UniProtKB/TrEMBL annotation:
KW Hydrolase (keyword) present: yes
Keywords noted in UniProt: Hydrolase
Biological source species: Aliirhizobium smilacinae
Protein name: N-formylglutamate amidohydrolase
InterPro entries: N-FG_amidohydro, UCP029730
Hydrolase found in the keyword field: yes
A Pfam family reported for this protein in Swiss-Prot or TrEMBL: FGase
GO molecular function, one term: hydrolase activity
Length: 263
């Protein structure tokens, strides 16, 4: 257990004021959990991680020279992109797959997963953002995820999508720049809404007023090395342009569409 690292911080130039996040970068489980009772094939599916995101994030961090934080445990163990009180924090069933190792679960095991994996990841995010904001400027946070090409026999038409709550400072220019090339379909809060109380963007960006956006890329487009390379080349200049905007380095708290912030 002690040798399993729940996060990885990719070092970079913190003075650039940009941080990349990849909550669901990996499909790993600590050895003591085995496979949670699932077949190995389950860990090649989206239920275990965001396919293609680790490679895409590593490429972008290297190209941009900025720090990144990667989650190193499968979302099947505990989902780092959920609040601690979210009922989907530890899934019992995911897209038709029953997860035997997650049910039944004692309160003690629930707490172990929070203390050993979920909370250390979020502390790493907090520490990285603190380093990137040491100059007094707010860092620009870009969170990377991926989504499946199909959902319940529906072919998702979007190549990429921007998810957000109510802070549109980075969202509107990102949508505009993604659409400018004219060769991709860009979703706005598709295929799901970006306002989720307690998730990573809510916790680390909405509450403290840090400019941010969450970008989803369709998994079949970044499922191999060529796809990751192509999307890194597409996104790097866009992210660079966003980062030059001084308004994306200012703290400003927007009200969340999910309701009042915790006192």
């Amino acid at each position: 257990m002690q040798n399993f690292q729940p996060f990885e911080i990719i070092d970079g130039d913190y003075d650039k004021g940009m941080v990349l996040l990849a909550d669901h970068a990996m499909n790993r489980l600590p050895p003591q959990y085995g496979s949670l009772g699932l077949p190995d094939s389950a860990f090649l599916r989206h239920i275990a991680f965001d396919i293609g995101v680790e490679g895409l994030t590593r490429r972008l961090a290297a190209m941009l020279g900025v720090p990144a934080v990667l989650g190193c445990f499968s979302r099947l163990l505990i989902d780092p992109n959920r609040g601690e009180d979210d009922p989907t924090l530890v899934m019992k069933i995911s897209d038709g797959a029953i997860i035997p190792g997650n049910h039944p679960m004692t309160d003690e095991e629930w707490q172990i997963r929070l203390d050993t994996y979920h909370r250390p990841y979020h502390r790493a995010v907090e520490q990285t953002l603190a380093r990137a904001s040491a100059s007094g400027r707010a860092p620009l946070v870009l969170s990377l995820h991926s989504f499946t090409p199909f959902w319940k026999n529906f072919a998702r038409p979007w190549h990429t999508a921007v998810l957000w709550d109510s802070d549109d400072r980075a969202v509107l220019p990102l949508l505009s720049m993604l659409r400018e090339a004219g060769d991709i379909v860009v979703g706005d809060n598709e295929p799901y809404d970006g306002a989720l109380k307690g998730d990573t963007m809510y916790r680390h960006c909405m509450v403290p007023g840090i400019p941010h956006t969450l970008l989803e890329v369709r998994q079949d487009l970044i499922g191999d090395e060529a796809g990751m390379d192509a999307w890194a080349r597409r996104l790097a200049p866009i992210f660079t342009a966003l980062n030059t905007d001084p308004t994306l380095h200012e703290y400003h708290v927007f009200p969340s569409r999910t309701g009042p912030y915790p006192a």
